[in-house]
Amino acid sequence: MLLTVTGVAGGVMYWPAGEAPGSAGLGGPLAVGAPAAVSAPASAARAGGLGIISPALVRRRVEAVGTGGAAAPATDGALATRQAGGLATVEPIAAVRGAASSGLAARFRGYLAGRPGHVSVAMYDAVAGTTAVYTDPAVAGYETASSVKLDILTALVQRAGASGRLTAREQALARRMISVSDNAAASALWADVGGAPAMNAFFARLGMHATTAGPGGKWGLTRTTGADQLAVLRAIAYPGTLSAAGRATVSSLLRTVIPAQRWGLTGGVAAGVAVELKNGWLPRTSGWVITSLAHVHGAGRDYIMAVYTKNGPSMQSGITTVQGLSTLAWKAARSSTSAG
């Protein structure tokens, strides 16, 4: 089955024809855009080809392909939570080390009070040795969408051991999975690494106790939090979990992400600073899921950051939220050139 959604900016989100419906579903090459023209069902095609359908129907169809089942019911939890003042920080977990940064967490909270949807955000500043974590507890877990592709890659590289080398086949698939967010490549590598059981074991080894792999091959429905994902980012950015060669393998692939997908945690970052990132996006009946993971280093700063949003009104709204948090983090990050 081939489902193609073409945005006004010329990007495409797709599930490759060779992929079983519902096996992955979440994320593909899609430039930032709003209205979409979608390939109509067979009945419409027989009646004359492509048709324009509503954004709500786009979400339902994409989600049905992406999850292999009925779409989840819509909720108004985001609005109700915000009206009730339900946003709250959570205690750092095993993945979060270093002194807490309550000031930045408070700034995250103040910014998110004016943004729609639910958000989980975490940032570790390697220069200052501080961690800021802020999560809306109104939802139980945040879908990773395509950001889990970085988790898949990290698990593969860890399995490779000290050499950090992937096989020629794995390297080719990993490049497609990371650089253009190819779903078929992700499904193949998810199976190679051992599927949900192996990924859950990988998460447990990293102390990610709030993360659960998506069932039945639905890797994009892996549930997590920003704080948990700092463990994966630490493994990539800093010595300890992966060998130096393994970290270099992951970093080199992250540098191949195409320009159309380099939004999110690039927001507010000074020109010339390295931002190694992987994003994810998924329209659901309850709203958009937008996710972004990154290692930002340069101009004296060095930090890792994870942002997960859900139930947003649009893709662009979620991207704006992530970029606003990114700007706050960049401004707050300590520079080694000014450290006392």
Topology diagram in text:
Blueprint: E1 3-7, E2 12-15, E3 36-38, H1 42-46, H2 55-67, H3 77-83, E4 99-100, H4 102-112, E5 118-125, E6 130-135, E7 142-143, H5 148-160, H6 168-179, H7 183-193, H8 195-205, E8 223-224, H9 226-237, H10 244-254, E9 274-284, E10 287-298, E11 301-312, H11 315-332
Parallel strand pairs: 4-6
Antiparallel strand pairs: 1-2, 1-3, 5-6, 5-11, 7-8, 9-10, 10-11
Helix pairs in contact: 4-11, 5-7, 5-10, 6-7, 7-8
Q: What's the main sheet like?
A: 6 strands, mixed
Number of strands: 11
N→C terminal distance: 59 Å
Beta-strand percentage?
A: 15-25%
Q: Figure out the total of helices.
A: 11
**Helix/strand/pairing category:** alpha+beta
Average pLDDT = 78
Give the helices and strands as they follow along the chain. EEEHHHEHEEEHHHHEHHEEEH
- In order across it, which strands form the biggest sheet? 4-6-5-11-10-9
Structure described in brief:
The chain has 340 residues and is α+β, with helices and mostly antiparallel strands. It has helices at residues 42-46, 55-67, 77-83, 102-112, 148-160, 168-179, 183-193, 195-205, 226-237, 244-254, 315-332, and strands at 3-7, 12-15, 36-38, 99-100, 118-125, 130-135, 142-143, 223-224, 274-284, 287-298, 301-312.
